[in-house]
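# nightly structure sweep
# worker-07 picked up a monomer target from the shared queue
# config: single-sequence mode, recycle default, output format = structure tokens
# input follows
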Amino acid sequence: MDCWLIAIINIEKRLTDVIYGLLDYLLLNTKGYNAGGIKMNIALIAHDKNKKDMVQFTHAYQPYLVKHALFATGTTGKLIHEKTGLDIKCFRSGPLGGDQEIGAMVAKNEIDMVIFFRDPLTAQPHEPDISALLRLCDVYNIPLATNMGSAEILVRALERGDIEWRYIVHDNKERELEKKNLLLKGIQSHFWY
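# output follows
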């Protein structure tokens, strides 16, 4: 009798795991996510000598990038939008604080991937900002591509769903927000009848 009971409990656990797996799959595919995974926030940055390459890259990968929220520094974003029609939230130009604005989003875990076509052979007046952005990507484990080869690998990985671990970050942020809202409601109901 005990063996049957243990077998039934094990079957119930396996069914529960399957049901939770199906729910996770449905959540991933019904909350506005693309077939490859969650809708990502991608930052696009290019130094002057690399802007043409960035425009070509975004044109070539437009079918993948259109599924995500795109952010860019001023001139880069403007050029990409003009040439591809992609929807892009533009910040200031890099030397005027655009790299820092994207860095702030990285620090708040609001950017999922950075594609930064750098010009390593030309001195940049805002080099400390660039170094800070790259360091923040390392600190917060944000995938970073600094040339076309690594950018292609990241975008293809994104489309395959290899970067879905970022879903955990987004899911945790949503849970924390729900917890804060419940806490506020509890406090309000306690003090205001």
